[in-house]
Structure of NAD(P)/FAD-dependent oxidoreductase:
Amino acid sequence: MDGTREDQGNGTYDVVVLGAGPVGQNVADRARAAGLTVAVVERELVGGECSYWACVPSKALLRPVIAVADARRVDGARQAVTGRLDTAAVFARRNYFVSGWDDTGQAEWVKSVGADLFRGHGRLDGPRRVTVTRDDGARHTLTARHAVAVATGSRPLLPGIEGIEEARPWTNRQGTDSGTVPGRLAIVGGGGVGIEMATLWQGLGSQVTLIVRHGLIPRMEPFAGELVARGLTEAGADVRTGVQVTGLRRPDPAGPVTVTLDDGSEVEVDEVMFATGRTPATDDIGLDSVGLAPGTWLDVDTTCLVRGVDGAWLYALGDVNHRALLTHQGKYQARTAGDAIAARAAGRPLDDGPWGDHATTADQHAVPQVFFTDPEAAAVGLTSEQAVRAGHRVKTVDTDFNAAQGADLHADHYQGHARMVVDLDREVLLGVTFVGPGVSELLHSATIAVAGEVPLKRLRHAVACFPTVSEIWLVLLAAYFRDRDRDRDRG
């Protein structure tokens, strides 16, 4: 038993939540706080992908790799780094943070907020109805008075390449739950998962070959991918861009994998991992029973209410609505949607205008994301190209981090770059990108500036402490106003 009350019969609740990951937990918590009764349905581990195979284990594994790299950047500390990472200790640290893949604690949390947990496969069965099938075949029928919230997440998308079944490739799950270090590892894909896994496994001792069809992290500013690629190369990884996999061979299940590329070359490795995208986990949740196509991303309005379903009762949160496949963004959606569900249940008007209490406006304007590579890459809002495409009149301001003395004190010969994208008509920030050691801790200040549309005239009065890496803000703002005043004088 998992410590929560598992209803052995049918039941009626105000809200039924499909998926007990961080997103499902947050919408359940918000609904319970409003006094609504809630049932939560989970087919795997309570805590979901993020807790056991994605964000939490990957960061637990990456932290020792980055900590050693940080030490090597500081003279005096560098000399103390005399050995390799203790991989057994690194894996033990990961195991601690995922609770040994035991979800008892998270199931207890569901109980603590007053929600009921149903373990099994949940499927919609017409409007406001969910059937739950347990592993032993027992079935429960749940009815929702007000809302069903779909928070079933996504799963890895594997391409249809010849030999892929024979190769038995890793996905993010094997990449974060493996307890052994492959001698040679090919990673296919240059997005966030690919570059973090390349950083991790190269740091743990694998010889990593990163295979990327285009550039690295293409949704960030181009310099971000370039600096991360340089960091991986300096760490010993083989970064190959502009190529793609055309075939895989693994005739001996216990033997190596041969990866064939479209440039005619081959790479022999012990394991191959695909990080080539995600697909929604909506293929077997009964969408057809409410007139929606199974296996599709769900289109939602600003309150995360699914479009095309009558009655204002079906919500889609997190990965399944494809707005931003990031845990923190899904939790934001869940909090906002939970409040909207409570308002609708009580008959209160919705505040769903821009930046309203029931609007997920940040999904379009201020999505922060961090990749824990070496160097780290962090960004919020629009890139310069995205801003121009959206019709803004913009100015980009760039600087290297060595312009801030605090950065040089943080790491000898600190290498990094920063850019802010300014809306010239309103003089507010549309986007900010940082690349460098430890820049993830700078991102929330940028997120506040972008989400709050803080005027640059006011932002320049936010004094950065000396000597910290955050002094980069002073450099960026000084450059903007210097150029603005010079252009005005010329005009």
